[in-house]
Structure formats: C-alpha cells, structure tokens
Amino acid sequence: MHATQNLSDFIEATFSSRSENEALARVIVSAFAARLDPTLEELDDVRTAVSEAVTNAIVHGYRGGLGQVHMRCELQQRTLTIAVEDEGVGIADVEQAMQPLYTSRPEEERSGMGFTMMQAFMDKLSVESKPGCGTKVVMCKSFRVPQDDATNPEPDSSGQTGGHEEP
Predict the structure, then answer these.
(1) Are 57 and 82 a contacting pair, CB within 8 Å?
(2) Catalytic pick from 22, 42, 47, 52?
(3) How far apart (Å, rounded) are the C-alpha atoms in residues 133 and 110?
(4) What pLDDT, in 10s, does the model give residues 101-123?
(5) Is 17 exposed, middle or buried (0-12, 13-18, 19+ CB in 10 A)?
(6) Do 133 and 87 meet the contact criterion of CB atoms below 8 Å apart?
(7) Catalytic position from the list 22, 56, 85, 87
(8) 61 with 86: CB under 8 angstroms?
(9) Which of 26, 105, 116, 163 has the fewest beta carbons closer than 10 A?
(10) How many CB atoms lie within 10 A of CB 39?
(11) Residue 41, SS3?
C-alpha cells in the first residue's frame, strides 16, 4: 500500500527577459488556471498581476539587458500560487519599492504602481530580494467554487429553468 501524499499540480517556465515574453507569461498562467473555471474577473486579476511581475523583472531586474525570468504556477485545491523570479540587480529596499508611485526608473516615465496592482489583484503578495542576486515575487489567489449547474440551471430559450415544461 502506498502512502497518500498531498501533491500539488504545477507548471514551470523559463524565458528570456524580452518584453514580448510578458504576453507569453499571461497565456501560460491563463491556460493553467482555466481548470478552476474562473470568472473573467478572476482570470483578469491573475493575468494583470503576472504581467506586472514579469514586466518588473524585465524592466527593473535586468534594466534592459538580457537574462532569464523563471515562473512557477502551482495549484493546491482552489488556490493558485505564482512565483516570478529573476537573477537581476535586486532591490535594496523592498519596503520602499512596494510604496505606490515609487519607481527605480523615473527617467523612463514608469508609474511605480506594479507592486500596488499585484497587491490589489491577488490575495497575498511577498517579495524577496537581495542586491546583485535578483528578486522573487510570490503571489496567491484563491478562486471561488463554481456553482453546480444543477443548483443554478441556465434558462432555456423559453425562459424556463431546470427543463420543466408548463402543462
């Protein structure tokens, strides 16, 4: 007999720090999260947060140079955890970097709202960074349980629900 383990489902992707790969990261996380039958709002929240995290790695982590961005998506029950990691310049003061409107690249007219948006769209956000060693952003989102079609049937073309016909 084998011991039961609580295994999670995951996917990992590593891609170059090119701005066009931000769209790739959004597609990967969207396809991975689709099995949870998310609402459009839930899916948009996750895609936006991933977009911000990957863009931060590309723009701030590598400052326009090339490097690798690592993304791991993991599902445990109805919670999606996403880690986006770079091996770039790192952040000297994470607390300051997470303040709304703060940007390390003001000359590029950056809004400084990336971490704020990640916090707004996800349930949990943590940032680990060390100057010269890169940054790891971990975000979690719990998805609502979809309603069973049997308990909330869709109306048919006549406006009736549940397949019952009027006598």
Answers:
(1) no
(2) 52
(3) 23
(4) 777 666 666 667 889 999 999 99
(5) buried
(6) yes
(7) 56
(8) yes
(9) 163
(10) 12
(11) helix
Residue type for position 167? P
Tens digit of each residue's pLDDT (9 = 90 or more) over 9-45:
999 999 999 999 999 999 999 999 999 999 999 999 9
Which domains, ranges and CATH numbers included, belong to the chain?
Answer: 9-142 (3.30.565.10)
Is-catalytic flag, 56? yes
Q: Which of 63, 78, 110, 128 is catalytic?
A: 110
Please say if 52 is a catalytic residue.
yes
Distance of CA 112 to the CA centre of its chain: 18
Q: Which of 33, 59, 38 is nearest to 113 (CA)?
A: 59
| SS3 at position 85 | strand
Spell out the residues 6+ positions from residue 75 whose beta carbon is closer than 8 angstroms to its own: 8, 9, 10, 32, 35, 36, 81
Catalytic site includes residue 42: no
Q: Output the six-digit token pair for 124.
A: 């949990």
